[in-house]
Amino acid sequence: MAQVRREHCAVLAFLFFANALTGQARGHTTAEQDPQTGLWSWTWVRTRVSIELKQLLPDQTRAFFLGRGFGRAAADRIARACVFQTIFRNDGSRPVAYDLDDWSVSHRGERLALRTREAWDAQWAQATVAEAARIALWWALLPTEQGFEPGDYNWGMTSFGLPPGAAFDLSLRLSIDGEPVDGRVRSMACAADRTAE
Amino acid sequence: MQPPIRTARRTPLCTPVCAKPIALLCLALAASVSALSQAQEPGNGLTVLADRPLAPDFELLDIDAERHRLSDYRGRVVILNFWATWCPPCREEMPSMERAWRLLQPEGIQMLAVNVGEDEDTVFAFTANYPLSFPLLLDQSAAVTEQWPIRGLPTTFVVDPRGRLAYRAIGGRAWDDEELIDQVRALQDDLVLRVRDGAETRAGIDRVAADPKAMQRRVDATPARRRAAGAPQDASGR
Fold first, then answer.
1. Is residue A8 one of the residues assigned to a domain?
2. Could you point out which of A163, B18, B171, B224 has its C-alpha 20 to 30 Å from the C-alpha of B156?
3. Which chain A residues are within 8 Å of B21, Cβ to Cβ?
4. pLDDT of residue B45
5. B9: distance to nearest CA of chain A, Å?
């Protein structure tokens, strides 16, 4: 009986470690809800490199861009494009780089690209948007490509281009010290547009 | 649709025979949690730019309409920060920049903060909540910022006395951190020692500090000088 129990425990321990190791290789994700605002945030971590994606209410985003000089229609267009606040940290010992063009979201069986600075800027070329507003949006969004040396950290908005409330999975890709690393954050959701409900 | 809140099951998983591996697993998980808990803290240290490229020169007005040309600060170390009032990590690091400025200004180290894309009124209003005494420069069209190797805000460079980019920090920092300040001072000390050793001209040192005597005392206090003078070192090797 004791022999069986030891074998059972050995298998269990093996499974734990295997899970921990593969989890570490792919990255580890946690989801947390702010008890006061009800907004969700998802954090992906691997070898002390972390990416935190915090839901922003469309109203928050709308107010931010109205305050930066966008007109109502343009601010609304950004606000309803599933904007998250993103905090990227490199607390590890190796340089990290990413290119948002390598990231994608899966929504209702479709694979979609993120809406980057360049994509937004191309839209304003056909619209009448004040220069100050365009500059603010450019710098407020997470850079499309960025390198982070050990100790670097930064914030920026990411826009997933989905409607408010949409559920999606995020596929991300980083390069850690030149080695590609793929990660997946499942069951994310854009914040609902509470004013429109 | 929001994801459901998951709660951990509290069923015992196995007997004490496998308590050790599980304890190790718990340690690994604790390390992950520790990494997560740092999300709101500023970054650490400065990245050394080994090739020290020449800093792109610029001329900008500050909020008091005073003109600043980066090359006019040649001979001094310049901490050059790019920021915006709406940027959370920029706001977060500003009080520590002010504290660092108060420490470093008497030593001849310059600090400049280039605001990207905003007007004078916006920046001026910001200073009501964040009292800052170092020059706040305005790059309203972002034309100067675009000449610099910057992708996001805040980004800060430390320019050496020869006008080259010596260090870079992406994201906010605690600028009054002693280790970080020592890194900045080392650039200044290096120049002054070179002047004293005849490797730089006397004109260089005249630009180093507003108060050359104070600077002299600082130079004499540098670890290299103290060692050369045979002074006893403290526990940290200084």
1. no
2. B224
3. 13, 16-17
4. 92
5. 16
Distance of alpha carbon B149 from alpha carbon B157, whole angstroms = 10
Question: Is A9 at the interface with chain B, CB within 8 A?
Answer: yes
Q: Packing angle between helix A72-79 and helix A58-67, nearest 10 degrees?
A: 140
Residue boundaries of the structural domains of chain B? 51-225
The rounded average pLDDT for each run of 10 residues, N- to C-terminus, in chain B (238 residues) is: 36 43 47 46 89 97 97 95 97 97 96 97 96 97 97 97 96 95 90 68 53 55 52 42
CATH number at residue A179: 2.60.40
Q: Is A167 on the interface with B (CB under 8 A)?
A: yes
Boundaries of domain holding A92:
31-196
Mean per-residue pLDDT of chain A: 89
- The number of helix segments (H) and strand segments (E) in chain B equals 7, 8
- Put simply, whether B79 touches A (Cβ < 8 Å) is no
Is some CB atom of chain A closer than 8 A to the CB atom of B84?
Answer: yes
The model's confidence at residue A123, banded by pLDDT at 50, 70 and 90, is confident
Residue A3, in any domain of the structure: no
- Angstrom CA distances, A142 to A100, A145, B27, stand at 9, 8, 33
Asked if A154 lies within 8 A of B42 by C-beta distance, the reply is no
Query: Complex ipTM, two decimals?
Result: 0.86
- Locus of tokens 């980083």: A174
Domain B51-225 architecture: 3-Layer(aba) Sandwich (3.40)
Please list every residue in chain A whose beta carbon sits closer than 8 Å to the beta carbon of residue B18. 9-10, 12-13
- Is position A189 within any domain? yes
CB contact at 8 A, A124 and A134: yes
Pick from A37, A51, A135, A138 the residue to mutate for testing the B interface (most B CBs within 10 Å): A135
